[in-house]
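Exercise 7.
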Amino acid sequence: MPNIKSAKKRMRSNAKKAEVNTLVSSSMKTAIKKFERVAKEGNKEEASNKLNIAVQRIDKAMSAGLVHKNKAARLKSRLTKMKNEME
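Solution. The predicted structure, written as tokens, is:
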């Protein structure tokens, strides 16, 4: 346990940031899984909507620094390719 005031504050702020980062990254993973499930079912219209949501979540995680830009591009590319192969 820290004794210095600034270290105590740093612990509090780190805990808040960790919680937000966990929410952003888990929502990204959930959106990707939901899209993949719909894509396997073959529902094109719903897959298009789920793809848009997944891309938004990936971009948000990238801008927050949770995912490297190359990984974000790779994820978006794979999901888009999966959707295009449905048609």
